[in-house]
Amino acid sequence: MNNWNLSRTNMVENQIKPYGIKNLDLLNALELIPRELFFKTSDIDRSYSDQHIFLTSDDQDCETRFVIAPVIFSKMIEIANIKKHEVVLDIGCSNGYSSAVISHLANTVVAIDQGENLTNLAQSNLYEASIDNVVVVNTDIKDGYKEEAPYDVIVIEGSVDFIPDDIVKQLNDNGRIVTVNVTDGIGKVTLFTIDNNTLFSKIYMEVSVPYISGFKKKNEFVF
User: Fold this and answer.
1) Pairing assessment for the beta strands 151-160 and 87-91 based on DSSP bridges
2) Buried b (16+ CB within 10 A) or exposed e, 62-80
3) 216 inside domain
4) 24 by DSSP, 3-state: which?
5) Is 177 contained in some domain?
6) Which H helix or E strand runs over 120?
7) pTM, full prediction
8) pLDDT, average across residues 185-191
9) Is residue 90 over pLDDT 80?
10) What is the per-residue pLDDT across 22-35, written as a single tens digit (0 to 9) for each?
């Protein structure tokens, strides 16, 4: 039988901390939240491995979803510098794990994904984890969720070629967006900040993360 408490401790001590993650609230959340609870039996043995885990979905016309590897996800959340009073939009929440972690840092999390089965799974997982400050919404993720805007922080859970203007407009003044921005075929963990209606970016590191659907440019053919 797996000792999941030990697995969580090992993830934090042997994966997260050596990568330079120092935010104590984030480290506590990672060690507290039962990551294994969010994965099906077929994936549960990999739930604490340092790799992206792809999920299967029964939703038609819904692209494959994934949970970002713990180290990369932790770095993204640390640089977002989420405060206890803030409202966060989690785009591409998949099985709800990312929103669970963010919920320990923020006041409220609006978690969005598309597909009734997937969002029901996220909601069920969060309920089982006794997390009550996350609202899960089934919607087209490339539009964000303006109904609860503005947001202090927006987390986009995957690689992107661009960030739609409609999503940028859902930020508070001095809000932040964290994602993996792809330029010249290279993914980079990037923090976007807005000041006086101008978007600024700061690159932190190169990573390999799958694209999140709706945020990849279509291939263009040149004749």
Assistant:
1) parallel
2) eeebbbbbbbbbbbbbbbb
3) no
4) helix
5) yes
6) helix 116-128
7) 0.94
8) 97
9) yes
10) 999 999 999 999 99
